[in-house]
Amino acid sequence: MDITLNTIDKQFGQFKALDNIDLHIESGELIALLGPSGSGKTTLLRIIAGLEFADGGAVYFGGEDVVAIPLRKRQIGFVFQHYALFKHMTVRDNVSFGLRVRKGETRPDKAVIRRRADELLDLVQLSGLGDRYPHQLSGGQRQRVALARALAIEPKVLLLDEPFGALDAKVRKELRQWLRELHQKTGVTTLFVTHDQEEALELADRVVIMSGGKIAQVGSVDEVYERPASPLVFDFLGSTNRIPAKLQDDHLIVGGQQIARYNGNQTGNVTLYVRPGDLRVAGVSDPGLDVTVLNVQRTGPIVRVTVEIPPTGQRLSVEVPHLHHDVKQFVPQQTVRLRLMQFSVFAAEPDLINEGVLTPHLIGRERSRLAQ
Amino acid sequence: MTFTSRSALPGFHLALGYTLVYLSLIVLIPLAGVFFKAAELGLAEIWAILRSERVLSALTLSFGTALIAAALNAIFGTLVAWVFVRYDFPGKRLFDTMIDLPFALPTAVAGIALTALYAGNGWVGQWLEPLGIKIAFTPVGIIIALLFIGLPFVVRTVEPVLRDMEKELEEAAASLGASRWQTIRLVLLPSLLPSLLTGFALAFARGVGEYGSVIFIAGNLPYVSEIAPLLIVIRLEEFDYAGATVVAAAMLVIAFVMLFVINSLQAWSNRHKVRNQSLALPVQGAKQ
């Protein structure tokens, strides 16, 4: 079932939670709504579900306007962060709840309901736990029960609100993988809300990044990661080095060093965004940024290096896979020339940006050719 | 015999000893006194007193009206608690405080006020009497007095549980297609049942023992509207101490049995919280 959102607005008192949201989701897609808290992502999910009502705009499921259809008839599967299992019912009764509350003809017989509940428990790998009560299960198991319960009504759309937010890191990782597989098996259009960029990137086909009640960017995982539309998106997806820089005479200048050629007729102050993983050691004759190594820290498979740009004293972080030949070159107190493999440049208009008046526009992006 | 496992936190023996002594001094010994006093009479005499029509009808009246009032309070008190938890309205704080008034008021005051209202010439009674409805000086009056006395017990026990009830449970039920009534019946009431039973038990226990408010509105006609606590007082005034304690002991036994049944029901309604606690398995172990 494809979903279309048309100019959705939502206000809570003085607070504008959603501001003119347009979004189209193809049938069968797995979509992440990503954003910091207060960005409106959960409100948007709840409006799609029918748990909340938009002040303006329309929601279409497969071309049909569903705004007037109440929650219980919308046939959506909703999974809550804290599971919302019925504590006084066994796991099987929880899963079959959606079938048991059907009326008259549409309700299957008891044997069918029971079989269906057990099939769903198999699907979520909880076979044999049907007679337990929710409190006898671990958090990960409970969330899988909640999913099975939501799937029991054969939902047109599956909506998950921070589904793994209450679980510990290891279980969260397992469940992500598992949800991905489940989505491939069932093919239900799925939207989930998260504030964890790693989760969004790992799980989703497309990511919707929200901020301040607006959509900051929509795109495939590659698109949003490789080509962030704004500094905000850049900041939000993974860690970033922000370096104040200058454009002058076709060169990008940081702390007096010309670090790259820059074709374009703009001049002025800019901010350069580069991810720690996109910094590598440059050859001596190559253009680059001379920095002093401060400290080198191995964290699992990644070596994190902190360096300092000498004239300004600004610190940058660099991440290199531990087997990379660059690792040897990072020796504390030594000077190293860094190559910026990939970076984005946004116009810096600090005062206006700080006051939220202006989104700095993208001036350009550089991706260095690796074969040199 | 040992029934304690070694604990890093000392104090179990002291705490248990204190509890037993305190409970004995305050509750068990005085109550045992009732039975000893009653035992001064022979079995036949006790039996005769209990079978006398006046005692039987007083006991039936006391327990019957207390049960009916507690049941009504369980229903309407829950509604009141629901409104307080879920809605905001002007004067809510004021009403919230008023709920507790029956706790604080000398119950005789309530009895007098209710009698003034419901007597044949009272504000309410004067309209009901021509219709053939008598409230004051009948068991109906007793039930009304007990409703007044018992309300805060139900509201105050149900309220915190309702407040803690996640709204998400209702949202989940609705998203699964349940109607509002199904959500209330299948999701809300079962989670509320343990606290509802507690409130019911408290209101019932209070109703059985209530004296002050009832004697004014009841009219105290033997065989019709004479409650058991009043009968005990009457027997005492007649210096029939043994007879009074027989009625008292009968009340004790009946009340104990009823509260025990309610407590068992409560344990049963909480079964999903305690049963098979040790069977919980970690994620990996549960996969088959």
Walkthrough of the structure:
- The complex is a heterodimer of chains A (372) and B (288).
- Chain A is of the alpha+beta class and 372 residues long.
- Chain A has two domains: 3-226, Rossmann fold (3-Layer(aba) Sandwich); 239-354, Beta Barrel (OB fold (Dihydrolipoamide Acetyltransferase, E2P)), CATH 2.40.50.
- Helix content of chain A is 24%, strand content 36%.
- In chain A, helix 2 packs across helix 3 and helix 3 crosses helix 4.
- Residues 351-358 of chain A have low confidence and may be disordered.
- Chain B is mostly helical.
- Chain B contains 15 helices and no strands.
- Chain B has one domain: MetI-like fold (Orthogonal Bundle), CATH 1.10.3720.
- At the A-B interface, strand 6 and helix 4 of A face helix 9 and helix 10 of B.
Record the SSE blueprint.
The complex is a heterodimer of chains A (372) and B (288).
Chain A: E1 3-12, E2 15-25, E3 30-34, H1 41-49, E4 56-61, E5 64-65, E6 76-79, H2 91-100, H3 110-123, H4 139-151, E7 157-161, H5 169-186, E8 189-194, H6 197-203, E9 206-211, E10 214-220, H7 221-226, H8 231-236, E11 241-248, E12 251-254, E13 257-261, E14 268-274, E15 279-281, E16 289-299, E17 302-309, E18 314-321, E19 335-340, E20 342-347, H9 350-354, E21 362-367
Parallel strand pairs in A: 3-8, 3-9, 6-7, 7-8
Antiparallel strand pairs in A: 1-2, 1-4, 4-5, 9-10, 11-12, 11-14, 12-13, 14-20, 15-19, 16-17, 16-19, 17-18, 20-21
Chain B: H1 12-38, H2 43-51, H3 53-86, H4 92-99, H5 101-104, H6 107-118, H7 125-128, H8 139-164, H9 167-175, H10 180-209, H11 212-218, H12 228-237, H13 241-269, H14 271-274, H15 283-286
Helix pairs in contact in B: 1-13, 3-8, 3-10, 6-8, 6-11, 8-10, 8-11, 9-10, 10-13, 12-13
